[in-house]
Amino acid sequence: MSKGGTSKRAAEDINKQQKKIKNIDEVLKLVKKLAEQGRKNTTAERSLAELDLAHSVREVVDKDADAVLDEIEATMLEVAQSILAGNGYSFDIPSRAKGNQLYVPELDRIVLKDTVSKRPFASSQACRKTAITTRILGLVHELCNKQINVTKRDLFYTDVKLFEDQRESDAVLDDLSCMLGCTRSSLHVVASEKGVVVGRLTFTEDGDHIDCRRMGVGGKAIPPNISKVSNIASDALFILLVEKDAAFMRLAEDRFYNDYPSIIITAKGQPDVATRLFLRKLKLSLKIPVLALVDSDPYGLKILSVYMKGSMNMSYDSSNLTTPDIKWLGVRPSDLDRFNIPAQCRLAMTDEDLKTGRKLLEEDFIKANPAWVAELELMLKKKEKAEIQALSSFGFQYLSQVYLPLKLQEGDWI
Amino acid sequence: MSKGGTSKRAAEDINKQQKKIKNIDEVLKLVKKLAEQGRKNTTAERSLAELDLAHSVREVVDKDADAVLDEIEATMLEVAQSILAGNGYSFDIPSRAKGNQLYVPELDRIVLKDTVSKRPFASSQACRKTAITTRILGLVHELCNKQINVTKRDLFYTDVKLFEDQRESDAVLDDLSCMLGCTRSSLHVVASEKGVVVGRLTFTEDGDHIDCRRMGVGGKAIPPNISKVSNIASDALFILLVEKDAAFMRLAEDRFYNDYPSIIITAKGQPDVATRLFLRKLKLSLKIPVLALVDSDPYGLKILSVYMKGSMNMSYDSSNLTTPDIKWLGVRPSDLDRFNIPAQCRLAMTDEDLKTGRKLLEEDFIKANPAWVAELELMLKKKEKAEIQALSSFGFQYLSQVYLPLKLQEGDWI
Q1: Is position B307 annotated as part of the catalytic site?
Q2: How many whole angstroms separate alpha carbon B246 and alpha carbon B108?
Q3: Which is deepest, A51, A343, B70, B93, by most CB within 10 Å?
Q4: The pTM is what?
């Protein structure tokens, strides 16, 4: 451990902390317990069908290419029959407006109610949008048939004359996702990825065997199309979800996962869809806890909320993108005093920070957890924030060799 | 091939193009020739020492950890001797100002002339900066000793009290790089990476064997620390440098490199230091041509200039970051008409675009190549730009199945 940058007192503190760390088995005792609880609590996620809901509601799920092809072909068969019967044709598009969204507490997720709008071809108002819808149905049919994945931008460029503006093709794509009852990735239209993963994890990606224990320090780029990922296997006790690249690099280079059996993931800031899908798939397949390491500021919590709750405008797709049960390991506001983060490594919160923080206090996912409320209130009271890197003030490897082992040993997650 | 989005005439065009494509061996004939030329032309990059320069000049080179440790220890020995002799101490810091930069046409790169400024400890003006320099020398010594890599941000946080502002520690780090005559990555301070690679390439990264032929569609994240990369091996004929993520994804999913032996790299937009170092290392080790696929707009050329020339403010480090010999494969302004890119997929250049384009015409790396000048002049005359994705208007796989094979077969790079 380097203590280069620290005073004599701080060096003594670090020494004391290091002495507290027991052998690996002891350190991992509480994490093991948490992992076991997780495996026992697999009361299989409840589905909409099991609930007796007043409204008939709609949700989107992952479907394989054949199922999407079936849906599209059934839709077009109806269209053809309607035309042959002399009625022209129209699509029934579920409304994605806020008024049509319903929060289901039993499932802890948002679904769509049954408001549907007609999109008829024989209407001067809807004609163009109906044509776009038909065209994109055809393109998605081609994608599923060929089993290839493209970006929204690629899709737009296949028929710029008709779509005119990418926002038009993007919006219709979301309509189709609701109409066909499947996720956007099931439509074979994917987001570009920016996440990386390293650690005790192997999987198959498009036929290739991927071993994340042997990915150097750069890690494996998280695949853009989750449907190509299978055979997930791991002897990890937990997933460490890291907000930032620099912390990921430190842990990867120190091979943190060798001593502490884990899978380390980062989306390098704001989570992208591919990383969220990947995290969710790991959690569901492996049933191990997810521990989060984020900056101690409102933005760090915002990032957690995207992983846990998703964003409002994709609410109908949220259950396929989110990982509701994430433990907040650190860096927590209470850590700043507990670990004696030097005053000059703490930053004053801006007015914007304080506003965001106060808004977060009103959010359900915070309110549901009193320990989170207490931490956030402490942050707002002290008006201080700190980055994960602030831990470097105790030496470059303090994060991997002292902070995280202590946190794990004490089961200090909330 | 999908021709879904195209008129009958366009479909005929695509058919004609497809028929032109011969068997793989024929397609690769010209690329093979180019690769052979490349291998013959290895008149070993000339070094500064071989040139008879009027000025005594200074350049920075990659050094291993032991060499950097030696440099630091020699520097500190001088410091100690100076103090013991009762003279206090000071550092000699090479100036990085524009007036101290010299373009050496024989080497086609910028080096630093011999202006050096004293940084004495016993000066009220320089004292703080000298303290910071000494401190960072100590920290870099620790990093090289432990063989670990950190980010600039980590470095800053090790002593916020002294550094106060990250710009201070960053600037001194650049000073040290010039003073010790080694690259920033030799100081074990690395940039965060965002590039990915896939294709016919194997290497060792921090002891792990990495096989980029088996990296699914997501690819391998390019490592932040190039010094951990060794044993580079490949049977590829060329490196395909791609500007954007979406095109990378298309080529990775289609396993373009199976039929056309290649290594595919992208930095997902603006090139980062890690990707530039990686490309350079591949080019030097494998001695195969680099073909670039960028948007047909001034920004695409700007990106090429960063790979080829580097950025001005790191000029002293440029020779370690750049890959001077890159061929511009596409999408070139002349391709728009040649491949009949539909009018609605072409975008009008903005005033800003035109300004950037005209400035580029003045740059040496453009002027050095008349074919590039002609293309850029055509762009400015037509006032049209186009993204790589515009090729999707002929079908999602047109890029990998028609456009690139035709380009390669015809040797259509400049």
Answers
A1: no
A2: 33
A3: B93
A4: 0.85
